[in-house]
Amino acid sequence: MTHPSSKELHGQFVMPTYAPGLTLVRGAGVAVWDDAGKEYLDFMAGIAVNNVGHCHPAVVAAIQKQAGVLMHCSNLFHNELQPRLAQKLSDLALGGKVFFCNSGAEANECLFKLARKWGSLDGRFEIITLKNSFHGRTLATMTATGQTKYQKGFEPLMPGFAYAEFNDLGSVRAAITPATAAVLCESVQGEGGVVPATPEFMTGLRALCDEKKILLFFDEVQAGIGRTGKWFGFQNYGIRPDGFSMAKALGGGFPIGAAAVTPELSNVFQPGNHASTFGGTPLACAAALAVLETIENERLLENAVAMGARFMEGAKKLAQQHACIQAVRGVGLMIGVVLTIPAKPVEAKLRENGLLCIATGDRVLRFVPPLVVSPAQVDQALALLDRAL
Ligand SMILES: *Cc1c(COP(=O)(O)O)cnc(C)c1O
């Protein structure tokens, strides 16, 4: 009798929320291997998770070491790594305090609760998000997500959310009511097709929120942790939000999420207001500290800028030969190739040829490779794209 394959077992025992294709068994840097031993260039990086590459030795060593010392302890006790990670994140952006959780959705939930607690003093609770955004799959973050396809069948939605057009300041202004507490925005919409915010929109949003005394939050779950060439995407625009969420790449593949706020908002939550059993465990924090150190030590922000430019230039050259490329857009190593044809079959062809990327929307190929990607690997990916098109 032969053993059932992973695919067969998945079909039998895992809820069909995904329809996975390959079975991946190993990863190293920008490469992954499937169960037949075939190698792929991973330009999706676990969907913007493996920013320091698969199984980076520094992250592996940090996890292995901490796993034998103290994996988990309750947040009713101090652990030695959580405040160190909080200090590091605070230094990288807002200079305030941090709350730890385990995912992007939870990090956004933290911002929503914080906005409501802050607004409760004068009866404000509403949160404005942008159309075509993506903020997660919990009830509140699914409601915040400005795409009805994620909400269908799960009504009633959470009260207290309003939507405005992305990159349209007038639309945000029109959505503000006396009950508005905060705006939550992605600096680069990822799931929505890799659409960067315009500089005018970002600076205008900051000024508008100041004028109306509304909190401005960014969802940096996908654009954060160096992907755009800055630690956080909003830093490309020279503005300072009141808070932001992060997750995906923070733990280099180990689950960890966090929300960071300014000093002004650092003590909105008091003991008992919010919590997470697994938030900021020693093991998760060891992984995250190793990720942040690796990004610094290997100058990966610089590499994201250089390799992002190389990929964009190459893709724009391909656009001159392939009429089916309509546009190439993005920031750093968060790049969308917009097609005039459906993206799914191209994604499948690329996979067959050994390049992993993700189709998003109907016509966008999203490339979010590890920040450790080399010039040769960028060129190889472009050659594979050329061939597939
Ligand atoms: C992936 C993503 C989320 C959700 O993160 P989870 O860890 O899956 O909960 C939220 N916001 C953005 C921008 C994302 O890309």
Please describe what this structure looks like:
This protein has a seven-stranded mixed beta sheet with strand order 4-12-11-10-7-5-6, with helices on both faces. The protein has a four-stranded mixed beta sheet with strand order 1-2-3-15. Helix 3 (57-67) packs antiparallel against helix 9, helix 4 (82-92) packs parallel to helix 9 (282-297) and helix 10 runs parallel beside helix 12. The chain has two domains: 6-55 and 299-388, Aspartate Aminotransferase, domain 1, CATH 3.90.1150; 60-297, Aspartate Aminotransferase, domain 2 (3-Layer(aba) Sandwich). The longest helix is centred in the last third of the chain and has 22 residues, at 300-321. The model has no long low-confidence stretch (mean pLDDT 97). Helix 6 (139-144) links the parallel strand 5 (126-130) and strand 6. The radius of gyration is 21 Å and the shape is globular. It is built from twelve helices and 17 strands. With 389 residues, it is an alpha/beta fold. It has helices at residues 6-13, 45-48, 57-67, 82-92, 104-119, 139-144, 169-175, 199-212, 282-297, 300-321, 343-352, 375-388, and strands at residues 24-28, 31-34, 39-42, 98-101, 126-130, 161-164, 180-185, 188-189, 195-196, 215-219, 243-246, 257-261, 325-331, 334-339, 355-356, 358-360, 364-367. Residues 103-105, 134-136, 186, 190-191, 219, 221-222, 247-248 line the site of pyridoxal-5'-phosphate (PLP). Residues 103-105, 134-136, 186, 190-191, 219, 221-222, 247-248 line the site of pyridoxal-5'-phosphate.
